[in-house]
Amino acid sequence: MAEDTHPRVRAKMNEIFVAMTPSDRFAAMSSMTEFVCVQSMNAIAATMPDAESREVALRWSELHYGAALTARVRAHLRRSP
Prior knowledge:
The protein is mainly alpha-helical. The protein has one domain (7-79). 80% of the residues lie in helices and 0% in strands. The chain has helices at 7-19, 22-47, 53-65, 67-79. It is elongated, with a radius of gyration of 18 Å. The relative contact order is 0.06.
């Protein structure tokens, strides 16, 4: 994997990460994951301008979890009131 972060910056990031408590590390990871998911969902929505948010979410699911699982989710949603 290519390194795009300067070694001094990487060292400082590692220093900060090591000093974090486990709960702080989890919160940071959770925040970054949410950010990436939202950006990914927005990119998908941009390619589906007329789609409702549920369809965008299902397309996201197809891309990340596969068509088979998403088909099961769609079937469940059709059966649900």
